[in-house]
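Re: the multi-chain job from yesterday

Posting the exact lines I submitted so nobody has to dig through the queue logs.
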Amino acid sequence: MAETISKESATKDPGRRPPAALGKADSSDQITRRSFFSWLSIGWLAFVAATGGFFTMMLRFFFPNVLFEPVQTFRAGYPDDYTVGEVDLRWKNKYGVWIVRNAAGIYALSTTCTHLGCTPNWLSSEQKFKCPCHGSGFFKTGINFEGPAPRPLERFKIVLADNGQIIVDKTRKFQQEKGQWNDPEAFLKV
Amino acid sequence: MLDKFRGTQLYKSIFRGGGVPKSRRQRMMVVLNSVFLHLHPVRLPKHAVKLKFTWCMGGLSFFIFLILTISGILLMFYYRPTIEYAYTDIIDLAEQVPFGIMREVHRWGAHAMVITVWLHMFRVFMTGSYKPPREFNWAIGVILLLLTLLLSFTGYLLPWDQLAIWAITVGSNMARAAPFLGHEGPGAGLLAIGDINFITMGSDVRFALIGGRFMGEAALLRFYVLHCIGLPFIIMIFMAVHFWRIRKDGGISTPV
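And the result, structure tokens for all chains:
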């Protein structure tokens, strides 16, 4: 340190020393230019991490843990409650499901039109589902045959509970165009 | 009398610079020193007030925005964004509340603003006013157009009638097909570990928009907050930049 001072003294007024060199010269925990920059980068990293964490919290905030929506799985009574050859409308408003029974068994059709998501009406006189929004038509099976709908209605998982009741699970859906209607859970054999 | 008032400390503290502007420079300083006026160009060229050139569509859009802000705040005193009350409150506003025309002002004003914004964009395009140095302000303007349409879209749901519910059902279904973000869009299956997919009906961008898997009260509340607070806040920031950039880019463009 003495050498440093003497170097400076050689170029500057020998009677004056830089104030920073006075007294503090011995302390080892002094912040140098180099350590200042490493502290600065740590500070920035902490700031970026905190900000990123906050934005992550903000994003997660929009996805609540509990939804106050109709339940997705429901008991739909016994197979004998449904008449062969008819479209049953009793769960349409509450759960958005048509239950259809034919000679072979029962399937659960989604009431959501595959065009843009409206709810078609079952016209029993014409034996078809007709969407009021853009005129898409579907057969009783759910297959689309008129209007802009690009694919058949979806079917939901339908199984029997241990006590013989029908259980419809809307979280599992089966699409005809993907060949999923052959899945045993897409059709309840009676 | 007026001159005497202008000399008081009260006047001088409110209006910086003080006194009646006498030179061009002083007149300029009046504009530059006001937080409201400084967004506006200091001097207007003669052609800038010619209706034939500007159609006044930008100004009209802003004027309608002000009307929509005021009428919208008034509507908020009566409207409750719940499934139980939303529709009846709209009827109540039209039939029971004095000057129930306020709801119609808001509705027709919203239609008018979409029209004037489009016409403003058309005028700017046809006069070539998007060219440098104004290309950045054109980009700001495109964002403003998008925000105007989003405000229109979010306001559409609030009456909670059949038209509103199905329009937003259809509209928000588009978000299902958003690439990577929507659960039916391309690339939705990429973010998955084994069989567990992270972009599902309960976690995609449509869910974030309507607050659920189906159109319901959560969607109504989210759209209400976006319509009344979120989007107006964002659009005002962009509007301030838009107006300020007109001045910075050399005022309204000149006819060729």
